[in-house]
Amino acid sequence: MREILFTEKVPVRGKYDVIVAGGGVAGVAAALAARRAGKKVLLIEKTITPGGLATIGLVNFFVPMCNGRGTVIIKGMAEEFLRLSIRYGFDTIPECWKNGTAGVDTPRYMTRYSPQIFALALTEIMAEEGVDLRYDSIVANVEMQKNEYGMHCNGVYVESKSGREFFEAGVIVDTTGDADVLFRAGVPTIQGKNYFSYFAKLLTLESCQNAVEKKNIGESYRVCTGGFASLYGHNHPEGMKFFTGTSAEDVTEFTVLNQLEMLRKLKNDDRNTREIVTLPTMPNYRTTRRIDGNVTLREEDAYRHFDDSIGAICDFDRRDFLYEIPYGCMIRSGFDNLITAGRCTAGEGYAWDVLRVIPPAIITGQAAGLAAAQALDTKRPVYDIETASLQNTLAGQNVMIHFDDSLIPAETGKHVEDDTGHV
After folding, report:
1. Taking Cα atoms as reference points, which of 359, 361, 362, 381 lies closest to residue 372?
2. pLDDT, tens digit, 9 for 90 and up, residues 12-61
3. What is the CATH superfamily name and number for domain 12-192+288-407?
4. Strands (E), 51-177
5. Which residues of the chain does CATH 3.50.50.60 include?
6. Element housing 259 (H / E)
7. Residue 310 and residue 293: Cα distance in Å, rounded?
């Protein structure tokens, strides 16, 4: 490949305690957590809308946050965000959770919500709490140097309408969803794969009538798909490659093929009876690239306690299954001020899916923001902070650090399928 050497003077536009790259729910959680800990925070988002897959990706589903037997597992900022997502819009929280009668045989604690209104609410809360925002901006590169702890990131180069600018940072949190910052910084990463899946929001005359009859605007939405592969790869076209999501060529091919497939399906409808409300403005990838962390969570780690757990989570697709998220899944020794959260967290196989969905992504974001603040306060690398202190702070913010063993079913080897559908 032909190469060009390009040199330019780049203005240094600011210095922050914490820079968060990526404005999905994990990034927003990290930014708010660090800001609430008293840090000067900048959040950089490549679109003009926060929330990531939870908003512009149209995955408007807070998956189950309970164990399926009436006990809430995922709390803290994840529950705060759930309430925020429905504050100004519709919800589908089961009535038993609203009136306090949830039990062992009731529906799980989850909800649908308006993705667009949730995005507005996320912008509002960050603006109110003093998080500096840079929308329509992308982290293009990083500046690395060696120090006594290994490698240190001095800051990030940002491309935007203002051109290329440099921002200095004490700690950088990578919540890009694709480990873009970590990858550019030389942190070891693992490449994932993605099935053929793409969906939009659709209105039909029938769905609108249904919404009017039920007096609930949420009932007006229907799903329109391009590719329709499930979480487990069902319906992935035979012979079609898997997609990486980590190159411009791959993103373009994935999007074009899916949009053409969606249009092919729409051509079979009466054009006067339906309308697409919105297309996703980011690819519906599930697992692209993540950190090769100090620890990797695996499916067989269900019901295992970790000394460095930053939060207990439940399996969104199966009742009873419980996990703890090791802090080691978010960091890599030798990189003193880089930490990740969300779907970039180190998980393998199905455990990566358990980690990447909305509530666990928020929990890891909350932990990353607090860890960044703690590292700055104690002048220690993010990979060498006192996790007991981090756990105490998280517990004080209503995060369940370790699940109670009494919640473990007698037959832990039996997979009890849930009825919530695949995400």
Report:
1. 381
2. 999 999 999 999 999 999 999 999 999 999 999 999 999 999 999 999 99
3. FAD/NAD(P)-binding domain (3.50.50.60)
4. 61-62, 111-112, 132-134, 138-147, 150-160, 163-174
5. 12-192+288-407
6. helix 248-266
7. 15
